[in-house]
């Protein structure tokens, strides 16, 4: 499979740079989800065929299926206390490593896997790096039961942070809502520039119907940025 667009070439470049920078024998890796991560997992499969000895924990059923297809050995999250690193994409990331994730509806598993990783590396094409996050609607995973009530509670939190009356969409629509790998709904919250991501993030988990949210703050340690010309750079966060 060859990348078709400049953005795909940049994603592939990020995946290759991550392989070149981080991989060595014996690593236990969190395998991210989304197209950038999929380029990474494909490239990882090639390295495994050449003899690299690694194993990964997938962050979605799609990544699990791809890893099996390309021959990356898998581990179960249940059986792993700690991972050496996780390599995963992002929908937006700022220069401090604050991310919006969940465009592929995998944010819950992604956050669980990142949580037990000693290092989290975000792999992105250069179009994802922004001054302030929030242009990409923030995905929030909620349980289907009473999701409109959860939406109202979310609105109260948003209002406290100066985001009043912003559009919130049930992903997939009422007729056919998207279900996550855990059987939940996703609410896409169009906040515009997020005023205070560091303080906003912990507020969501106080709402009972919220399962997890796509604001990843204080999680990424490094960013690998891919460019369409095939080059990649690593940004280490303090
Ligand atoms: C999935 C994610 C992805 O990492 C994010 O959506 C980026 O995807 P892509 O690499 O396809 O642009 O968070 O839940």
Can you characterise this structure?
- The structure is a single chain.
- This protein is of the alpha/beta class.
- 31% of the residues lie in helices and 24% in strands.
- It has helices spanning 6-22, 35-49, 61-70, 107-115, 147-160, 197-204, and strands spanning 28-31, 55-58, 83-88, 92-93, 99-100, 117-125, 138-142, 168-170, 185-189, 210-213, 215-216, 222-226, 232-236.
- It has a six-stranded mixed sheet with strand order 2-1-3-6-12-13. A four-stranded antiparallel sheet has the order 8-9-7-10. It has a three-stranded antiparallel sheet with strand order 4-5-11, with no helix packed on it.
- The termini are far apart.
- It binds ribulose-5-phosphate.
- Ribulose-5-phosphate (5RP) binds at residues 32-37, 88-91, 101-107, 110.
According to DSSP, the number of beta strands is: 13
Average predicted local confidence, pLDDT: 96
Q: Residue share in helices?
A: 25-40%
Strand order of the largest sheet: 2-1-3-6-12-13
CATH class of the largest domain: Alpha Beta
First-last Cα distance: 36 Å
Distinct ligand kinds: ribulose-5-phosphate
What is the radius of gyration?
17 Å
Please provide the ordered H/E string of secondary-structure elements.
Answer: HEHEHEEEHEEHEEHEEEE
> What portion of residues belong to β-strands?
15-25%
User: How many distinct domains?
Assistant: 2
CATH topology of the largest domain: Rossmann fold
């Amino acid at each position: 499979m060859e990348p078709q667009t400049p953005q795909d070439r940049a994603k592939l470049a990020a995946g290759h740079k991550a392989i070149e920078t981080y991989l060595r024998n014996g690593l236990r890796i969190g395998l991210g989800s989304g197209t950038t991560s999929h380029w990474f997992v494909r490239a990882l499969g090639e390295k495994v065929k050449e003899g690299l000895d690694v194993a990964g924990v997938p962050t979605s059923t799609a990544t699990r299926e791809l890893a099996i297809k390309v021959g990356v050995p898998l581990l179960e999250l249940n059986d792993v206390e700690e991972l050496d690193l996780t390599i995963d994409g992002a929908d937006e990331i700022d220069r401090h490593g604050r991310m919006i994730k969940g465009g592929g509806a995998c944010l819950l598993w992604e956050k669980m896997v990142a949580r037990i990783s000693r290092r989290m590396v975000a792999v992105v094409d250069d179009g994802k790096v922004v001054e302030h996050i929030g242009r990409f609607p923030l995905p929030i995973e909620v349980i289907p039961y009473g999701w409109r009530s959860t939406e109202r509670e979310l609105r109260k939190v948003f209002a406290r942070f100066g985001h009043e009356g912003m559009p919130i969409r049930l992903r997939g629509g009422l007729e056919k809502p998207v279900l996550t790998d855990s059987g939940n709904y996703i609410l896409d919250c169009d906040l515009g520039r997020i005023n205070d991501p560091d303080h906003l993030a912990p507020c969501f988990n106080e709402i009972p119907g919220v399962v997890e949210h796509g604001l990843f703050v204080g999680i990424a340690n490094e960013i690998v940025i891919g460019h369409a010309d095939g080059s990649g750079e690593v940004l280490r966060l303090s």
